[in-house]
Amino acid sequence: MGTLIVLLFVLIAITAGSSLTWLVLDGLNLRARLAAGSVIGLALLLWIGYLGSLIFGLNYFSIALSAIILLAAIPMILKFAGIEKILADFAEIKLDKVGVIYFAIWAGLLGWLYSRVLMFQPDGIHTAPLNSFGDLPFHFSVITSFAYGDNFPPQNPIFAGSKFTYPFLIDFLTGFFMRCGADWRAAFFVENLILSLSLVVLIEQMAMTLTGDGLASRLSPVIFLFNGGLGFINFFKDLSRSDSGFADFMMRLPKTYTMNAVFHLWHYDLPLRWGNVFTTLLIPQRSMLFGLPFVAMIITLWWNAISAQDRRKRRGLMLAAGILAGMLPMLHAHGFFSVMIVAAPLMLFFFSWEWIFFCLPVAVLAGPQALWLGGSQVRSKLFQLHWGWEAGDSNPVLFWVVNAGVFILLLLVALNSYRPLDSKRQKFYLPFFVWFIVPNVVLLAPWPWDNIKVLVYWALVTSAYVAAILAFIFTRRSILLKVSGGVLLVMLTLAGALDVWRTLTPVENIGIFNRDDVEIAAMIREKTEPQSVILHAPIHNSLVALTGRRSVMGYPGHLWTHGIDAGSKQADVTAVYGGGEQAVRLMFELNVDYVLIGPVERSQLYVDEGFFAGRYQLIIDRSDYRLYRINKQWNQGTQKLQSR
């Protein structure tokens, strides 16, 4: 029943979002309208739901209110858009058989991929790809904090007491769906599938807009989403050394070929760090599911605005782009940053006063979000010089040759040839070089690899231009050119396709939480208050992530990548488990409500279990797990006695 309610919400959201597209663009095909409407509608749903939850909490009332607001908006939008125009567009729909097959293949692949993101098996919760092993528990912490923890206004669920400055809205949407009654798998799967399939369509539409070539528009999503460099050569080396048959080898690929590997070129050892978009970004780093389609829509609107002859139409298109950009900060902060740093040079290249209609909604909508997201403890360390992204000590040029393969070469051909792209389309691309240059020059995050969150937008727009060159080659009469085009396409996508394939095979089926973790987490939800603070070992996959309760301190690696300096808190956590009066004082200072003692705490920390057993109430005693309630009043009294 819960899944049906979620699907009803999704239908309402898509209807509202799709209706809005008729206010902005004429002549858009229904497929693109539904894709844009899906992304915009779900964004509206989560924003309405989130703002309502800030006032009323995430409950049946705020959920119902979200539905009522969206439902009430639909007839008003349709009235302004013109029902006659919409009906006329529906009457002109023609069946594109090739398109149906093309998107059916994409839907099947995406459904298969996302069905493996969250797998409930007899021994616990598993995931694929491997990169999700590190990121998914953090997202669990965020999702459950909304669904089960009444985390409004949001505190950082893995660093209790601190403001949450991570772009968390996609995780809020998952929590929203869970509060509607959906189970874990449905809540994840529905939004993942809809947003990723919409992304494919929106990349196609962006490429069609930028190149005017139908074949290029179909190639562009393939090139972007199966991105990879020359790592496929490592695959052939591994295959030649393997004693297994081809089928067995393919079912047990020994490693990934776009990430966390080394490529040997002459006497150089070059790191492979240009990870596949699916396996390193879209699936593990969930906010990309909104960031990428939003930016694809903004690029499309920019080109249409620059190309429009009518000033009123240009204003409307710029206004729409500004509204989308203004919604971005808490959906995907790096996406917003990327849009802003390219908007300035784009204004200079194509100046008109209509750009003010882009800037105004950005200022109004993004300003409050920027204030909330501001305050990172590592701001002073950002924008320091950091040459070559992840090249390290290797030659940056060779690093990119190996990681991007022929991608950059084909881009240069596209920008320096009089066919297939005209000079205006080539000029339009030039400001987007900022998305490549800046991440290769300065540090944009505590972890240098995270600069990929801007580089990926460079790859997004570049894929359309690279696809245009391939489409031009494929449509020549020469068989040799057609074969050459096929070889180039394989070189662009084989490494990425191998990594995606590996994700679909049993070799990537990684346990995150065991069965005891899941059962104990359910007991903690039942026996503790929603906004409780729990002390546990600072590991990345603590069962507390499943409870919705706040952690005194989560995994230091997650905190560091989010710009949080844990300082002495990790030492304080260790000291508390050691017991004694110092533990009493520290638990008071850390605002601890409960202390969890389980196998991980015993193996990684020195735990004085007698101290906790003798002083505090045992709430849960199951398997090897103990949960103690900390009496804050007693702790406070002890503090006063010690201070006299």
Radius of gyration: 26 Å
Q: In percent terms, what proportion of residues is strand?
A: 5-15%
What is the makeup of the main sheet? 5 strands, mixed
Low-pLDDT segments: 639-644
Portion of residues within helices = 55-70%
Trace the largest sheet across and list its strands: 7-6-8-10-9
Instruction: Let me know the average pLDDT.
Output: 95
The total of helices stands at 29
Write down how many β-strands occur, each being a DSSP E stretch of 2 or more residues. 10
Q: Which outline best applies?
A: globular
Structural class: alpha+beta
The CA-CA distance between the termini, in Å, is 60 Å
Can you summarize this structure?
This protein is an alpha+beta fold. The protein has helices at 2-21, 30-56, 60-81, 83-91, 97-115, 132-147, 169-179, 184-211, 214-225, 232-241, 246-251, 277-282, 288-307, 311-327, 333-349, 356-373, 396-404, 407-416, 423-429, 434-437, 452-474, 479-504, 515-527, 556-561, 569-577, 581-589, 599-604, 609-615, 632-643; strands at 119-121, 124-127, 261-265, 268-272, 510-514, 533-535, 550-551, 594-597, 617-622, 625-629. Among the domains are: 1-94, no CATH class; 100-127, no CATH class; 512-643.
Task: Describe this structure as you would to a colleague.
This protein is of the alpha+beta class and 644 residues long. Among the domains are: 1-94, no CATH class; 100-127, no CATH class; 512-643. 62% of the residues lie in helices and 7% in strands. The protein contains 29 helices and ten strands. It has helices spanning 2-21, 30-56, 60-81, 83-91, 97-115, 132-147, 169-179, 184-211, 214-225, 232-241, 246-251, 277-282, 288-307, 311-327, 333-349, 356-373, 396-404, 407-416, 423-429, 434-437, 452-474, 479-504, 515-527, 556-561, 569-577, 581-589, 599-604, 609-615, 632-643; strands spanning 119-121, 124-127, 261-265, 268-272, 510-514, 533-535, 550-551, 594-597, 617-622, 625-629. The strands form three sheets. Strands 7-6-8-10-9 form a five-stranded mixed β-sheet, with helices on both faces. Strands 1-2-5 form a three-stranded antiparallel β-sheet. A hairpin with a 2-residue loop joins strand 3 and strand 4. Helix 6 packs across helix 7, helix 8 crosses helix 9 and helix 13 packs antiparallel against helix 14. The longest helix has 28 residues, at 184-211. The protein is globular. The model is unreliable at 639-644 (pLDDT under 50).
